[in-house]
Design a protein that fits this description.
Helix content is 3%, strand content 43%. The chain is mainly beta. The chain has one domain: Porin. Strands 3, 4, 5, 6, 7, 8, 9, 10, 11, 12, 13 and 14 form a 12-stranded antiparallel beta sheet that branches. Strands 1-2 form a two-stranded antiparallel sheet.
Length: 261
Amino acid sequence: MQLRAQAPGLPAESGQQKPLLNFDAALQRETSSPSGAAARVRLFGMPTGFLRDPVGLDSDDPALPADPMAARANPDDDFSGILVSMGNYNPYFDMRRPEDPRGLGYYKVHSQMQVLDLGRTNVSLTLQALTPAGLESGGVANGPTIVSPSFACFQDLGYGAALQGYIGQDIMATSRWTDNLGTRVHYGVGVQCPVPGLCPQSDQGLFFFVQALGRYRYDTRTDGKTAVWEVIPGLHWRVNDNCWLSIGASKLSLLTWSWQF
């Protein structure tokens, strides 16, 4: 689609008008993935705008290819933009919110749908569920069942930098559904950039990131606070998407490690 405009009193050159806005060319520039594209860095406690298996899930399913373009190599595949994984939940690999279970023995289901994929811009919808695994599976017998829908985005800013953000909600699934389902809204934003001289490739090396995680509660009868923010600076070292290490500075002394082969 093109919008054309001509300044008044000026003749058109060769019978053609110069386009004022060319959406086709803009979309082509956006969908292209130039060399030097930003690495898909996973930040603490945040779902990703691109398709990736979650941290802390012991799944028997094969991991998604490290190349994000390989996941959509077949455009005729009806499930190329959908990721579903399930397995035992390990709470010690990532940041936990106050409502999340603190120990082992839970089963986690992670589903993610790619809503928008323009190469440098990614938007996804994520739905996660945590439930007790049960004594017959070696888990806990009783505990909360938590359903967490969220909306996440990823934007490549160029020169290896990127911006990420999300907003989600925790819903306690109980036998008695009440009107008090919106008390656990959580959100976050983060920015990443490569450390000069320590990134031999665009998706390898050492990256610096800063993220801010927040929680909002409608019901303030417990602590009197409506919103709580936490800023976490850190470093992310990666070989590829299946081998990386993140260290964050916060009151929880965060440290995550992932190794797949």
